[in-house]
Design brief:
Blueprint: E1 4-5, E2 10-11, E3 16-17, E4 22-23, E5 28-29, E6 34-35, E7 40-41, E8 46-47, E9 52-53, E10 58-59, E11 64-65, E12 70-71, E13 76-77, E14 82-83, E15 110-111, E16 116-117, E17 122-123, E18 128-129, E19 134-135, E20 140-141, E21 149-152, E22 157-161, E23 170-173, E24 176-178, E25 185-189, E26 192-195, H1 196-202
Parallel strand pairs: 1-4, 2-5, 3-6, 4-7, 5-8, 7-10, 8-11, 9-12, 10-13, 11-14, 12-15, 13-16, 14-17, 15-18, 16-19, 17-20, 19-21
Antiparallel strand pairs: 21-22, 23-24, 24-25, 25-26
Length: about 200
Amino acid sequence: MTSRIAASADVDETAQIGAGSSVWNLSQIRENAVLGKNCIIGRGAYVGTGVTMGDNCKIQNDALVYEPAVLEDGVFIGPAVVLTNDHFPRAINPDGTQKSASDWDAVGVTLRTGSAVGARSVCVAPVTIGRWATVAAGAVVTKDVPDFALVAGVPARRIKWVGKAGVPLLDVGNGDWKCPTTGEMYIETDGRLRPADENMEEN
């Protein structure tokens, strides 16, 4: 299966585009970026130099994914999301000279498998968005997000737990949570959530 690249997209010749991936109109893929299989890059999206993406990721229209972001498999980036990469942004140095790439150290956002970042939210690097976690639309993430957490607000805080289906879980008591869509069970321990079958495998 070949990749599909729109004529108006700007894809650097050193970028790697996985089989079955689509890069749509006016998007830009920078030098040495790596996209896995079956990824979708929406209209006007930006993928920075050396950004790495796993398989089956979706980056929606006008999202900005700055290097050195790392996206694992199945990550969703909503429209107009921004993943930042600078602790202390400035256009110029203290002496008034214009900053260049050598004048600062880029820091990245890491998105674990199955995580999703809602429209117009901002992830302030360096942060990690946990497995299957969800960042609500318009949130500003300044701290790491645990696996399966739903975070919202400015700054973002956990408001619910979600399962792999993305639906808020039901509290069935004694630290047990159930997905109303799939029936999967989850266990909360010390403020962390894990699928019940993972706990059983490790015990």
